[in-house]
Amino acid sequence: MRIETELDSFHTERLLYLQQKLQKPLTEIVAEMLAKAIDMAIPEEREPQETEGQRIYRIFEEAGLIGSFDDDESLSVDYKKHLWNSQ
Question: What is the reported pLDDT for 73?
Answer without folding.
Answer: 72
